[in-house]
Each structure stands twice: as structure tokens, then as C-alpha cells.
TrEMBL record, chains A, B:
All residue ranges annotated as the HTH marR-type domain in the record: 7-140
Protein keywords: DNA-binding, Transcription, Transcription regulation
Annotated organism of origin: Neptunitalea chrysea
PANTHER family per record: TRANSCRIPTIONAL REGULATOR SLYA (PTHR33164:SF64), TRANSCRIPTIONAL REGULATOR, MARR FAMILY (PTHR33164)
UniProt xrefs under InterPro entries: HTH_MarR-typ, MarR/SlyA-like, Tscrpt_reg_MarR-type_CS, WH-like_DNA-bd_sf, WH_DNA-bd_sf
UniProt keyword Cytoplasm present: no
Protein name: HTH marR-type domain-containing protein
Source species, domain of life: Bacteria
Gene Ontology terms, MF aspect: DNA binding; DNA-binding transcription factor activity
Length: 149, 149
DNA sequence: AGAATATACTTGATATGTCAAGTAATAGTG
DNA sequence: CACTATTACTTGACATATCAAGTATATTCT
């Protein structure tokens, strides 16, 4: 066969893995806090550790700014967060976790940890390092837009 | 810090990598055939190599059946595909590539190959094997739903 | 200060992801 | 053959992804 079906590439294993992980995470998180998404849970936890702006959070979790706006709005409407303007720089948003949001974090934190452990069970530290290195290389390759060659 | 931010896990590198790859692919494909998505291009190529049913294709590329229905409908409306009922089993859909679709495949095939090469540049065969193995392990871990432990 | 840029975020349009519920056709069972 | 279960796909509702265009505020430059 002169042209291997793209699905045979390792790149599709990456897709497969991330989808499996997301599914597991969502399933387990939903069993504790129904209707929250893994993205929303992740964002809650990030905010609880620092007071990043929307844009900074978006960059942390590789999300588009547009998506971020929408996710944040949903989280506000669900009473996980409040948003006020930064008094120094009125372009920026100050995100604060509500009491309700704090309770949710308490509930979810152990499960999120467990999800990671479940996914990485029997993956040695060395393997995780290898994985990390190779993935970073691929990421870099993809970011050098000029593919003259 | 007692609870590492989830974004520090290798699992988020997986997200990062797949997003970078998708971005590169979409960017390059769009330069040749505007308005086609990488998913649609991938599906076109898969159909051109076999006559799988929708469900089978969905499984190949890890897509939900609902998404598949919608993507196929879009592809029909864009004149990439036609769909008829299988005469033997009327539940099944027969997907056929239109002339227009064939031209698009011709145009895109080299670029899709190049995208893969770009992403995997300087990743040795051995590394790809390692990557594949570790990813499969993680995928398996995530699919064993019972995380009693 | 005024103009040009840049930053932080928003909105619209369209595509896809995901769960739940539904339809039509087929297969399996008593 | 009637009944039930399964399969293949669809639809609705909602969340997120992505690009493009837009708004408001800050910053830089002249």
C-alpha cells in the first residue's frame, strides 16, 4: 500500500489516549458532582491555586480565548465563580471562586488525583519522562510552521 | 505543594501535542482546500480505501456516532460524498465519494503525508514505538473503568 | 497630547464532542 | 410467527474548538 491510512500513525494513538482519559475523568467526576465538566473542574482548581487572568489560564490549559470566555460565563451562571474587573487594568478579569465553588473543589480534588493515578498506573517514572520528551518534540515540530524541506 | 496542578501532568502534554498537530494540519490543509476540516479530509481518505459503514469509520477515528452523522451530513452538503442505503441491510449507509471528493483527495494526499512527516521529524522509529506502547498502556488503564485500589 | 499598536476579552458563525433518548431494520428466541 | 434484543444510525440539548471580526482599555512612539 503506497499510502498508509492516517489512522495507523502514532499520532492517532495520541488522539485515542486523550479521548480515553477524558472519558474516564468525566465519568468519575460526574459521579461526584453531576453536570460539571472536566474543563470546568480543572479551571476551578487552577484558579484556587493562583489568581491568573483568563488569558493566562487559557494558555495554561491550551484553550482558545473564545472558548475560555464561554466556559467562564457558564461557570459564573452555575455559581462556581464571580468575575470583576481588575481595578488597575480594566481590561483584565478578576476571577474568584464562590463558596459553592470551594465545596466543589473539596469534593473533586481526590477524584482528580485518582484519575491521574489510574491513567498512569504501571507507567514508570522513566516512561513518563520518555513520553514527555517525545511529545514535546512533536509539539515543537508542529509549531515550526515553515515546513520547507 | 500537596496537590500538583493537573497541568503539570504528562497527560496535559498529550493534550498540548494533539492540539498543536491539529492546528498544523488544519493550517496546511486549508491552504490547499479552503473550508475542509481535517476530520472531513481524514474521513474522505478512509472511505477511499475501503467501504466501511459510518459506525466502522467512527470507531476507526475514535468519534462518537452522533458526531459522525453530523460530519457525514456536512460532507454530503459540500458535495464530497453521497449516501445510499445498503440494499442487504437497510440500516447501514453506503458512502460513496463524488468526483469532486476524488479531486480533493488527490490534492490533499501529499499534504497529509507531509503533515505527518513534519510532526514526526527527528522522532526515531524506536521513539515512535516507545510512544505507541506507553500511549496504549495509558489508554488501557483508562478503559478499565473499575478503579478500585 | 495624539496616533498607532498592543493587550484582554467578547461575539458570531460553524464544526465537533458527548450524553440521552428515539427510530427503523435485523437477528435471535421460544 | 410473535416477542425481545441488538444494531445502525439520528436528533436534541448543551459544551467546547476554532477562525474572524469587533470592543475597550493600555502602552508606546512621535
Amino acid at each position: 500500500m503506497s499510502f498508509n491510512t492516517p489512522t495507523k500513525t502514532v499520532l492517532y494513538s495520541i488522539e485515542e489516549t486523550i479521548k480515553a482519559y477524558r472519558k474516564l475523568s468525566q465519568y468519575n467526576i460526574s459521579s461526584i458532582v453531576p453536570k460539571i465538566t472536566i474543563d470546568q473542574a480543572l479551571i476551578l482548581i487552577i484558579i484556587s491555586h493562583s489568581d491568573n487572568t483568563q488569558t493566562e489560564i487559557a494558555n495554561l490549559i491550551f484553550k482558545d480565548y473564545a472558548s475560555m470566555t464561554r466556559i467562564i460565563n457558564l461557570m459564573i451562571s452555575k455559581d462556581y465563580l464571580t468575575k470583576t474587573l481588575d481595578k488597575i487594568d480594566k481590561r483584565k478579569a478578576k476571577l474568584k471562586i464562590t463558596e459553592n465553588g470551594k465545596i466543589i473543589i473539596e469534593k473533586l480534588t481526590p477524584m482528580i488525583k485518582l484519575n491521574r493515578e489510574t491513567a498512569l498506573k504501571n507507567i514508570s517514572y522513566k516512561e513518563q519522562e520518555q513520553l514527555f520528551k517525545i511529545l514535546k518534540k512533536i509539539t515543537q515540530n508542529c509549531k515550526t510552521i515553515d515546513n520547507e524541506n
